[in-house]
Structure prediction request, 178 residues.
Amino acid sequence: MSTAQLTVEVEVLGEALEAIRAIAPPETWQSWLQTWLRQLSPALSPIHAYELSLQFTTDAGMTALNREYRQQDQPTDVLSFAGLDDAPLPPEVLAAIPFNLGDLVISVDTAQRQCAAHGHSLPEELAWLAAHGLLHLLGWDHPDEAHLQAMWAQQRSLLASIDIHLPDSAYAPEILHP
Prediction:
């Protein structure tokens, strides 16, 4: 899949705007997502063209989304809103436009709190969450520990492809579920 065939929309929202630009400009996020999609090679688009949005928000913004879509009145680190549904697009449409994977929303506030527990920097945590959300958009899930560990292994592989290397201990089950 060539970079020219891959469309990634990066949208930075709210109070997180300057913090995110200081960590990595939108072009960096786009490059990382393109790298990850090339590595994952999803077979959803016959023209190998994909689009998604990546939005960074605050805990207040994330709480509102989490309340509306998951009925949980608290922030979370990342939400994925898949563009996939049960009605497939006609082949002629898939052959003409980029496939919409959906939307990723990351709470920079929650990511900042998680850095100390996970033992790494905010840029590393944000990249980890973006990779996690992307996998959800592609249909990955973690209903049990085995699936979670497989997903984390894939996330580590994605991060390694952009030269971010996190220790295995950063996401050990005992850290996340004491």
